[in-house]
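Homework help board

Subject: predicted structure for assignment chain

Our instructor gave us this sequence and asked us to write out the predicted structure in token form, then describe one feature. I got the tokens but I'm not sure how to describe them. Can anyone check?
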Amino acid sequence: MKLILKLTGGLTALLAGLFAVYYFNLDMKLMHSVIIPFLNRHYDSRKIEHVI
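My token output:
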């Protein structure tokens, strides 16, 4: 019985965490603050091969 309660509690906590990420849009905030600047630095330092 204790195993079922622990499993249910863990799944509930996981669901609450995933809902918080979705509700506060935390994945896009991470992308905007970490990933996008890294990609901008990478692509801005490349030599331009074809000018449009």
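Reply (TA_rk): Your tokens look well-formed. For the description, you could write something like this. The chain has a mean pLDDT of 93. That's the kind of observation they're looking for.
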